[in-house]
Amino acid sequence: MDTSSLPSMAQYSEKSLDPRVIVALDYSGAEQALALVSRLKPDLCKLKVGFELYVSAGPDLVRTLVDSGFHVFLDLKFHDIPNTVAAACSSAARLGVWMMNVHASGGMAMMQSARSAVECVVHTPRLIAVTMLTSLCQDDVESLGISTSLESHVIRLARMAQSAGLDGIVCSAREVSRLRQEVGDRFLMVTPGIRTQDTCSDDQKRTLSHTDAIRAGADYLVIGRPVTQAEDPVLILGQINTELSQMATT
Ligand code: C5P
To answer: What does pTM read for this prediction?
Structure first.
């Protein structure tokens, strides 16, 4: 793994960083991911490592990204019995990641075990819960046999995650303003499914634009293909950041 072009940790102090965009490094291998990362800086974005990249590149790549000063969201969406999830969370937290997640539908005991496990690590990551995947819509919820509306189900899972002591949730930006009324302002809301009208929604169904997501109250935006598959990912990321910072000053 050639990591020579990545920034060193010392170049970036943690306090100066709070980019709202988390770039989803959905690549099949470390080489491709690092080719993009070498063009990024921790003050431009945070990074997300999901199944595809983790299965091929493993914990070494996660450590490399962390050591380069990036805030890394390890998106492995753990969902298993409490003991197994707690052990997995403990190992993941020891990689030094900034954020990690479990599925809220794993239940209260599973989320509480995950919370306790990450508390035992020196640098406790933010632990959040996936509510309903942004690739699902009301019809999918019905076919799963869930009898309430998708929004009510998301609210129920969000409340459970909050009661279990988690730091926040993954949800659609479309649900954020309603969820804020239920769980308040301090509960983190991380929103994938970010698309503008000009971009293809791919397999995402509950989408919103980056500006509307922030306006609705999202804390962090997970953006994958609109950035990673752009002709110039760094240019697109720069445009998104500019539009978000213009919103902050108006
Ligand atoms: O390419 P795109 O912007 O759709 O990527 C979204 C990313 O966010 C993917 O890595 C996907 O796994 C992740 N994600 C999601 N919906 C969730 C949780 C995570 O799309 N509820």
So the answer is: 0.92
